[in-house]
């Protein structure tokens, strides 16, 4: 088992489990009904109003098919709206609603605060080093992902 416990994939999976648990707990404590992916989607739509669902998937590195359910839930809760694209009538463009803006404004400080809990046990310098290394390795492996990050 010692070998498993020192493998990057195992440790990354465990850190993801911790990240999801911490995010979920903090959101529940703040009375906010939002998942990590919903937060990422709202953030991206707020920063680039009018993007398509495919562009959103690329912006947050999420599978476009699975993202459909996320977009449906955000729309059904009144946090985003979907309009017909003026460039392609088959596509929908996404916009954050006033309710979505309010939700995002409530969630952002909570999300910023919980980052320290995700990286518990590390001092500020170690956190900066880990984040730099995570960015470096995810950038290097982006093309290997089934849902690569695509920045405009």
Automatic annotation (TrEMBL):
Family matches, as Pfam families: MarR
Segments forming a coiled coil: none
Superkingdom of origin: Bacteria
GO BP term, example: response to stress
GO-annotated molecular function: DNA-binding transcription factor activity
Domain named HTH marR-type: residues: 1-139
Name of the protein described by the UniProt record: Transcriptional regulator, MarR family
């Amino acid at each position: 088992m010692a070998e498993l416990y020192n493998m990057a994939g195992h440790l990354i999976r465990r850190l993801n489990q911790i990240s999801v648990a911490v995010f979920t707990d903090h959101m529940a404590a703040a009375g906010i009904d939002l998942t990590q992916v919903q937060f990422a989607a709202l953030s991206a739509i707020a920063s680039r109003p009018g993007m398509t669902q495919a562009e959103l998937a690329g912006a947050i590195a999420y599978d476009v098919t699975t993202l459909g359910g996320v977009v449906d839930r955000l729309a059904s809760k009144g946090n985003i709206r979907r309009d017909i694209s003026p460039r392609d009538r088959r596509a929908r463009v996404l916009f954050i609603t006033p309710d979505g803006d309010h939700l995002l404004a409530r969630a952002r400080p909570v999300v910023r605060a919980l980052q320290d809990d995700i990286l518990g046990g590390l001092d500020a310098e170690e956190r900066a080093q880990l984040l730099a290394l995570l960015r470096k390795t995810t950038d290097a492996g982006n093309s290997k992902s089934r849902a690569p990050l695509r920045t405009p």
